[in-house]
Write a structure and sequence with these properties.
Blueprint: E1 2-7, H1 16-26, E2 32-37, E3 40-43, H2 47-52, E4 60-66, H3 70-83
Antiparallel strand pairs: 1-4, 2-3, 2-4
Length: about 100
């Protein structure tokens, strides 16, 4: 288990678009990833679970993970909070005409 804590500085907190970006990054990792705030722990791979935390600017969040890539997973989520950059990963479809 690897974990780090951070305080949310996003002016509008963690709303739907931000939750989408966080969860989409979380599912790219093999590890189980969790977010904890105010004593509530949720699966970070679910948009709705993240929204239930009600994270507003100034809220403390602990990001933890357990698995093969736990350090990379936690560090990526913490980086997103640090930079207030919650854009989801880009997926490129292999479409042939």
């Amino acid at each position: 288990m690897y974990e780090k804590s951070i305080t949310c500085t996003a002016q509008n907190g963690i709303h739907t678009r931000v939750s989408h970006g966080l969860s989409q990054w979380a599912i790219t990792f093999e590890s189980d990833i969790f977010m904890t705030s105010r004593g509530i722990t949720v699966d970070a791979k679910s948009i709705l679970n993240i929204l239930t935390l009600g994270i507003v600017s100034g809220t403390s969040v602990v990001v933890s993970a357990n698995g093969a890539d736990e350090k990379e997973a936690v560090d990526k989520i913490i980086e997103m909070f640090s930079n207030n950059d919650f854009d989801p990963p880009l997926y490129i479809d292999d479409c042939s005409e």
